[in-house]
């Protein structure tokens, strides 16, 4: 049985880690390099670094910061934000990223998923999907959740798998930052539709939420930010509790 993964997420704006609620009202959460080191030492399985304003500001990811973070950790490292070409990915991989996460660029140019999977392998390609419910429909949003599309979450998830994505990082915008739990119904449906790992994101508030997303949401990994950044949940404690709930994790 595959172990479930716990993944802290560093949302980066102006070189600092930030965290908001429903993608707005951002507050400072610390130095990304320091946080990365702490999470690596505490037993996080992976780390995600999202340069959340790169797409909106139409610039590339902060490569220097990526290099600094990569040099302090010894766990798999996924980088996203402002990636729109094979060349962008080459630069990030050369500077310490193990995987890349693409979102807006994948929707605007779905062929990019095929190209990246072909060049670097599916294991390197994470497609992030930000979606919120509008009139009972899960609608995919772009540019840090600011731009709604015509795409439906489940149809898009199936397409990205067919194009070669190795994982899907699904963030429920409705749940993000609320600490009311993950969108487990949508996660379970996603899990039944695709055969690649699903990372749950948006809504972690306590340890039970992680238990629920692994059991009810069928998630393969759970990503969280503020509960880790502000020391509301310690990763070691979380993993022990998951183990006690018969969820396989790497201790």
From TrEMBL:
In its keyword annotation, does this UniProt entry include Cytoplasm?
A: yes
Task: Kindly give the CDD domains that the UniProt entry links to this protein.
Answer: HisF
Gene Ontology terms: cellular component: cytoplasm
Catalytic activity field:
5-[(5-phospho-1-deoxy-D-ribulos-1-ylimino)methylamino]-1-(5-phospho-beta-D-ribosyl)imidazole-4-carboxamide + L-glutamine = D-erythro-1-(imidazol-4-yl)glycerol 3-phosphate + 5-amino-1-(5-phospho-beta-D-ribosyl)imidazole-4-carboxamide + L-glutamate + H(+)
GO annotation, biological process: L-histidine biosynthetic process
The record's section on Gene3D superfamilies has: Aldolase class I
Judging by the UniProt lineage, the source's domain of life is Bacteria
Q: Does the keyword Lyase apply?
A: yes
Q: In which pathway does it act?
A: Amino-acid biosynthesis; L-histidine biosynthesis; L-histidine from 5-phospho-alpha-D-ribose 1-diphosphate: step 5/9
Q: Which InterPro entries match?
A: Aldolase_TIM (IPR013785), His_biosynth (IPR006062), HisF (IPR004651), IGPS_HisA/HisF (IPR050064), RibuloseP-bd_barrel (IPR011060)
One MF term in the entry's GO annotations: imidazoleglycerol-phosphate synthase activity
The entry's localization annotation reads: Cytoplasm
Family to which the UniProt record says this protein belongs: Belongs to the HisA/HisF family.
Q: What does this protein do?
A: IGPS catalyzes the conversion of PRFAR and glutamine to IGP, AICAR and glutamate. The HisF subunit catalyzes the cyclization activity that produces IGP and AICAR from PRFAR using the ammonia provided by the HisH subunit.
> Assembly state and interactors?
Heterodimer of HisH and HisF.
- Protein name, entry field: Imidazole glycerol phosphate synthase subunit HisF
| Provenance organism | Flavobacterium gillisiae
Give the gene that encodes this protein.
Answer: hisF
């Amino acid at each position: 049985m595959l172990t479930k993964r716990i993944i802290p997420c560093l949302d980066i704006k102006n070189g600092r880690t930030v965290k908001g609620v429903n993608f707005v009202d951002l507050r400072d959460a610390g130095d990304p390099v320091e946080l990365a080191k702490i999470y690596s030492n505490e037993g996080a399985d992976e780390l995600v670094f999202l340069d959340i304003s790169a797409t909106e500001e139409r610039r590339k990811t902060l490569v220097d910061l990526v290099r600094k973070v990569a040099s302090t950790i010894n766990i798999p490292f996924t980088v996203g934000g402002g990636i729109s070409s094979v060349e962008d990915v080459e630069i990030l991989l050369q500077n310490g990223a193990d995987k890349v996460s693409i979102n807006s660029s994948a929707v605007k140019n779905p062929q990019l998923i095929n190209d990246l999977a072909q060049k670097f392998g599916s294991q390197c390609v994470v497609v992030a999907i930000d979606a919120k419910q509008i009139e009972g429909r899960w609608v995919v949003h772009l540019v840090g959740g600011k731009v709604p599309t015509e795409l439906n979450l489940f149809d898009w998830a199936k397409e990205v798998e067919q194009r070669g994505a190795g994982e899907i990082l699904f963030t429920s915008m409705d749940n993000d930052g609320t600490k009311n739990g993950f969108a487990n119904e949508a996660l379970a449906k996603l899990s039944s539709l695709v055969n690649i790992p699903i990372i749950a994101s948006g809504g972690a508030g306590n340890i039970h939420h992680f238990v629920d997303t692994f059991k009810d949401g069928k998630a393969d990994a759970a990503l969280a930010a503020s509960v880790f950044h502000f020391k509301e949940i310690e990763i070691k404690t979380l993993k022990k509790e998951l183990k006690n709930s018969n969820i396989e994790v790497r201790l």
